[in-house]
């Protein structure tokens, strides 16, 4: 299982109505720190498998959702549970800290 792209159009179905917790990575192609954490998120997604879904939302292509959730800087990571924001982290973290944060948030 790897990270999947979501869009403004699919956000409701893919994230808010998900049966499992979802980590949303708000990112952009031009963002260096976003690219740095990308491989770590892929690995964490594979390791945590069915416990959590990891998705990516490109803020340039999908401006509505980041605006609705007050995303001001990227990368911003949000954990959604039962359609609500459960946890939020802004900025790049080392892989071990990312995984610990995700595990403690789900």
From TrEMBL:
Active site: 31, 34
Site feature (Deprotonates C-terminal active site Cys) residues: 25
CDD domains, per the entry: TRX_family
Disulfide bonds: 31-34
Pfam family membership, one: Thioredoxin
Thioredoxin domain location: 1-106
The keyword Hydrolase is annotated on this UniProt entry: no
NCBIfam families the UniProt entry points to: thioredoxin (TIGR01068)
Record site: Contributes to redox potential value: 32-33
SUPFAM superfamilies from the UniProt entry: Thioredoxin-like
Gene3D superfamilies for this protein: Glutaredoxin
Protein's name in the database: Thioredoxin
Coiled coil: none
Biological-process GO terms, alphabetical: cell redox homeostasis
Family: Belongs to the thioredoxin family.
Keyword Transmembrane: no
Entry GO CC: cytosol
Keywords: Disulfide bond, Electron transport, Redox-active center, Transport
MF terms (GO), sorted A to Z: protein-disulfide reductase activity
Native species: Thalassobaculum litoreum DSM 18839
């Amino acid at each position: 299982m790897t990270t999947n792209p979501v869009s403004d159009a699919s956000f409701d179905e893919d994230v808010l109505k998900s049966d499992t917790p979802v980590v949303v990575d708000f990112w952009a192609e031009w963002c260096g720190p976003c690219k740095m954490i990308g491989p770590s998120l892929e690995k964490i997604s594979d390791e945590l498998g069915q416990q959590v879904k990891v998705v990516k939302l490109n803020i340039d292509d999908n401006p509505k959702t980041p605006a609705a959730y007050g995303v001001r800087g990227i990368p911003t990571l949000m954990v959604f549970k039962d359609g609500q924001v459960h946890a939020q982290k802004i900025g790049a973290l080392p892989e071990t800290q990312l995984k610990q944060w995700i595990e403690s948030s789900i």
